[in-house]
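Sample pair:
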Amino acid sequence: SHIQLQLQAVGNLRPGDMLAQIQTQVPVIRANMLWKQEEQMLRKARNTSLPIIVALDDENPSLPEYNEPPLIPPEARSRLERSDLKIDPQPFLPSLRAHRYLG
């Protein structure tokens, strides 16, 4: 079974071999919120998921300005990867998302 194979792989590790657990990140939206409280304008930036719910009232009857995110998230990362990243892209222990360090 795949569990047996992974147990054997762990048994073959040398002392000092290190593994990295990799978690795929889900895309998030960065919301820069601005609102009025009494006579003061307050702002806060937050990572958030969709949908974002906005309460409208007589004082604020329309939706705030916003950028529409793409319907399909990009395949590639938008952030640069570290140049010194030395982790095998192939999982060493797939059940645990554990990868070996290279070099």
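The chain has a mean pLDDT of 85.
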